């Protein structure tokens, strides 16, 4: 078992790669009442075209299947696994993102039994035609719920206008029609391909003894047999750097229009370190210009182009990346134009050393604050781990960044042909 | 061992609550201003949090104020208003890095308290009114907030349910206020109201974090001190008896129908049955193991979510679910069957024990979160008692099946609210 100390953060991480390929990470936090554990696979909504394990031909599966599989893994022949956690006072959950599917629990007692249950239920699928059909009604209502949410529609609408071919533009839950095509056999195909331990990560943070915990996980894993690991062949279409369409307008029965501006990020990083620096610089620069203390916020706010729903976020993964800014606005066209010209104009700016140090301090404070949350630590640890990055390197990396790095990055960051707009406007009539 | 050490000191016109804990890498300070919920003041109180964030005497613009916060290692600062039972609470929160984790040695607590003092006692004004530009812009912000509630159908349905259910009670009041009242507010009368609020509202200040060796009482006293004038308003606690179940259906352009039900529990934070109510809610609709989840979702595939939640200070219990418009009758029947089953005691001793564990687990998890812990402790102020979290946990673990039956006897259905699609008849 490897042990890594992070002195500044006063944290220690224990890790080991098991014989079956599973990567295990443990972060003891004895001052917490709670323990949080997350079992995650490198498999999300974008992994729709691949060669199934043991076969040679590439297939494309119905949209929404990774998320459907996540729902169905909780159901076993004789019971619902939620109940196993419930019996011990634990709460369980799961989520599917573009690139990951993760199963998790949190609990303040019976940690060891809950860890075993988490490992066992994810590694023991039971899918039947009947239970697959039953789930279609439930997920159908989940999709309909999102269809009524203008925030979700504008977020996805922006991604759809940014991407021509990449499957990130496909809704994670799929559509009512696409999930209707899903069969039990499809679920087993995806499960067998993507849920091999060598494609997965197990993380526990909270109140436990690390030696005993690692021992428990190893015993649990060595009692199971898995096929030989195989490299997974996934396929993604070519994606041009240009956006698919400059403007996408969705009519909905809303009282307040929305306007989001999306930027398709360059995917030109050389290595993991370069990737992390880029991600942090984007975050720092968006903050410098568009946060409440930012250069542009007050101007946008006082001119009534934005309200306090305005926000920005960046999502960069292995083979796609975007930033999205915007929110409610009474003037969607004016805001689209203004944000676009602000973004395109950023290349003309240089931050002063003082400005850079202010925003850097802010980022350091926010990172420390998010370290209060076991959920944040666990989710982000797994996120960065999939990208080959150590979460605890984030703080030293922020500290290392210089105003020179930021200004050099700013020069080539944004290009008008990588910007697209999505608006939600009140339906006519 | 006590899991939470809360030291309470009444001084300088407020109650100071100091919570020492080594759990976090940050320090949290929360200032809470409490007054009775009233139609005459709710819109003003809804507007104040927006105005206060726009500038102070020494930081005259929102940007200057935000920059000062950024300089404190990105201190996180927000102000909001909420209703708890028939009280209206303005919460001013700041969270900043603990010096112990920074390479520099700055007096962050002192600087943070200074900023709070600026925001609370010296908002940007000309002496007898708020800044006109700020006032106009924020009035518009609040108006947009009021207008856009309808865009979030879950919140909207919840608000409409309470409108109908609590027509004659102060609890009906909308936390964001009313357009009609907003039109009567100007920068001068709002400022006047704010000055009176500062002396009349009950003021509680929470400081939480690793505070060892820091003289918190004096550091706070240096920046917070006020003369108190007793508020003559009393909290209205009129409660309507259920005579006839109300059923309201409204149609809008939606894909999914929102079926929300309101029950009266007739049990509040100070009542002996409050512990059992938490367990009752857990078995009924509080968790994925609950009757609502298992029946509405898992057995009948009618919904993605079907859950219940209770209000601690008013004595209400709400059911929420998102269903296809055509499934109204079926979903309503199944939900009401689950409540009947609860009242008849159709659950096992094992389920009771499991749910007690879940409730305790949830409480302990909330206590791991700094803001969560402060909210839990503030319940004591709202209910005017001293039930510490340990006592709450002990009380929950003593709950028996008979206690749950007693809760069931007190719960009454009051209102069924259904937001459905246009043209989607409920008899389909």
Question: Quick summary of this structure?
Answer:
Chain A is an alpha+beta fold.
Attribute tags:
heterodimer, A: 429 residues, Cytochrome Bc1 Complex, Chain A, domain 1, 2 domains, seven-stranded mixed beta sheet, five-stranded mixed beta sheet, 15 helices, 14 strands, B: 428 residues, six-stranded mixed beta sheet, 43% helix, 22% strand, Pept_M16_N (chain A), MPP/UQCRC_Complex (chain A), Pitrilysin family protein (chain A)
Walk me through the structure.
The complex is a heterodimer of chains A (429) and B (428). Chain A is an alpha+beta fold. Chain A has two domains: 2-222, Metalloenzyme, LuxS/M16 peptidase-like (Cytochrome Bc1 Complex, Chain A, domain 1); 247-426, Metalloenzyme, LuxS/M16 peptidase-like (Cytochrome Bc1 Complex, Chain A, domain 1, 2-Layer Sandwich). Helices cover 41% and strands 20% of the residues of chain A. Chain A has 15 helices and 14 strands. Chain A has helices spanning 65-73, 81-87, 111-122, 129-147, 150-162, 176-180, 184-194, 210-222, 272-290, 297-302, 332-345, 353-370, 374-386, 394-400, 403-413, and strands at 2-6, 11-17, 23-28, 35-41, 49-50, 59-60, 91-96, 101-107, 200-206, 247-252, 258-264, 311-316, 321-328, 419-426. In chain A, helix 1 packs across helix 7. The longest helix of chain A is centred in the first third of the chain and has 19 residues, at 129-147. By secondary structure, chain B is of the alpha+beta class. Chain B is 43% helix and 22% strand. In chain B, strands 1-2-6-3-5-4 form a six-stranded mixed beta sheet, with helices on both faces. Chain B has a five-stranded mixed beta sheet with strand order 7-11-8-10-9, with helices on both faces. In chain B, helix 1 (39-52) packs across helix 4 (132-148), helix 9 crosses helix 15 (401-410) and helix 12 (349-368) packs antiparallel against helix 14 (389-397). The longest helix of chain B is centred in the C-terminal third of the chain and has 20 residues, at 349-368. At the A-B interface, helix 2, helix 4, helix 10 and helix 12 of A face helix 2, strand 5, helix 4, helix 10 and strand 9 of B. Chain B: Residues 186-358 form the Peptidase M16 C-terminal domain.
């Amino acid at each position: 078992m490897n042990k890594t100390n992070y002195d500044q953060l006063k944290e220690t991480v224990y890790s080991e790669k098991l014989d079956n390929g599973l990567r295990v990470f443990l972060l003891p936090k004895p001052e917490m009442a709670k323990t949080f554990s997350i079992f995650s696979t490198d498999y999300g909504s974008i992994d729709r075209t691949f060669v199934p394990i043991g076969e040679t031909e590439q297939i494309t599966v119905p949209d929404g299947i990774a998320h459907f599989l996540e729902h169905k893994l909780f159901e076993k022949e004789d019971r619902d696994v939620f109940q196993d956690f419930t019996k011990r006072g634990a709460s369980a959950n799961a989520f599917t993102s573009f690139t990951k599917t993760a199963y998790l629990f949190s609990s303040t007692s019976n940690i060891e039994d809950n860890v075993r249950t988490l490992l066992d239920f994810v590694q023991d699928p039971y899918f039947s035609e009947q239970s697959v059909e039953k789930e279609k009604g439930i997920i159908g209502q989940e999709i309909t719920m999102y269809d009524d949410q203008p925030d979700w529609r504008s977020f996805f609408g922006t991604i759809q206008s940014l991407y021509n071919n990449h499957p990130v533009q496909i809704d994670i839950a799929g559509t009512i029609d696409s999930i209707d095509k899903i069969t039990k056999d499809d679920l087993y195909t995806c499960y067998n391909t993507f849920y091999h331990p060598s494609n997965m990560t197990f993380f526990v943070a909270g109140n436990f003894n690390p030696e005993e915990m690692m021992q428990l996980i190893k015993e649990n894993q060595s009692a199971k047999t898995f096929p030989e690991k195989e490299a997974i062949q996934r396929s993604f279409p070519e994606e041009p750097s240009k956006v698919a369409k400059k403007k996408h307008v969705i009519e909905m029965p809303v009282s307040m229009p929305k306007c989001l501006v999306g930027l398709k990020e360059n995917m030109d990083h050389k290595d993991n370190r370069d990737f992390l620096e880029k991600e942090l610089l984007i975050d720092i620069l968006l903050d410098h210009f568009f946060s409440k203390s930012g250069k542009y916020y007050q101007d946008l706010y006082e001119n009534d182009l934005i309200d306090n729903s305005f926000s920005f976020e960046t999502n960069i993964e292995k083979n796609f990346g975007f930033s999205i800014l915007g929110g409610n606005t009474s003037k969607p066209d004016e805001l689209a134009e203004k944000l676009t010209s602000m973004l395109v104009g950023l290349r003309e700016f240089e931050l002063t050393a003082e400005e850079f140090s202010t925003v850097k301090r802010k980022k350091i404070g926010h990172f420390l604050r998010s370290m209060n949350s076991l959920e944040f630590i666990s989710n982000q640890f797994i996120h960065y781990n999939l990208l080959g990055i150590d979460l605890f390197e984030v703080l030293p990396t922020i500290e290392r960044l210089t105003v020179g790095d930021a200004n050099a990055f700013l020069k080539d960051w944004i290009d008008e042909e990588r910007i697209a707009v999505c608006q939600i406007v009140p339906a006519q009539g | 061992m006590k899991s939470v050490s809360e030291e309470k000191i009444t001084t300088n016109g407020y109650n100071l609550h100091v919570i020492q804990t080594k759990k976090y890498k940050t320090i949290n300070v929360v200032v809470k201003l409490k007054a009775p919920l009233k139609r005459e003041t709710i819109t003003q109180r809804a507007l104040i949090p927006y105005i206060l964030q726009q500038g102070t005497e020494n930081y005259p613009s929102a940007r200057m104020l935000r920059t000062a916060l950024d300089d404190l290692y990105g201190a996180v600062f927000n102000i909001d208003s909420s209703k708890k039972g028939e009280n209206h609470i303005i919460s001013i929160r700041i969270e900043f890095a603990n010096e112990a984790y920074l390479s520099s040695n700055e007096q962050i607590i002192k600087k943070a308290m200074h900023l709070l003092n600026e925001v609370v006692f010296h908002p940007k004004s000309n002496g007898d009114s708020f800044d006109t530009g700020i006032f106009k812009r924020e009035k518009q912000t609040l108006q947009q907030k009021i207008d856009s509630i309808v865009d979030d159908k879950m919140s909207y349905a919840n608000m409409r349910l309470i409108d109908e259910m609590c027509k004659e009670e102060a609890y009906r009041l909308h936390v964001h206020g009313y357009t009609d009242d907003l039109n009567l507010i100007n920068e001068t009368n709002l400022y006047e109201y704010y000055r009176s609020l500062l002396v009349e509202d009950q003021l509680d200040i929470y400081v939480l974090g690793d505070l060892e060796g820091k003289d918190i009482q004096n550091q706070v006293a240096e920046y917070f001190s006020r003369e108190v004038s007793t508020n003559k308003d009393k909290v209205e606690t009129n409660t309507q008896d259920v005579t006839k179940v109300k059923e309201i259906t409204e149609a809008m352009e939606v894909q999914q129908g929102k079926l929300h039900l309101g029950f009266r529990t007739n049990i509040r934070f100070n009542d002996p049955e409050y512990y059992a109510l938490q367990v009752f809610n857990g078995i009924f609709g509080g968790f994925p193991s609950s009757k609502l989840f298992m029946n509405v979702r898992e057995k009948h595939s009618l919904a993605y979510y079907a859950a219940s939640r209770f209000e601690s200070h008013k004595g209400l219990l709400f059911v929420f679910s998102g269903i296809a418009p055509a499934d109204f009758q079926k979903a309503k029947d199944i939900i009401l069957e689950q409540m009947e089953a609860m009242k008849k005691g159709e659950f096992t001793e094992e389920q009771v024990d499991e749910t007690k564990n879940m409730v305790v687990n949830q409480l302990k998890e909330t206590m791991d979160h700094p803001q969560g812990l402060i909210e839990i402790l503030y319940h004591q102020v709202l209910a005017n008692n001293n039930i510490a979290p340990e006592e709450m946990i002990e009380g929950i673990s003593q709950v028996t099946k008979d206690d749950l039956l007693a809760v069931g006897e007190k719960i009454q259905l009051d209102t069924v609210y259904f937001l459905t699609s246009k043209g989607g008849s409920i008899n389909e």
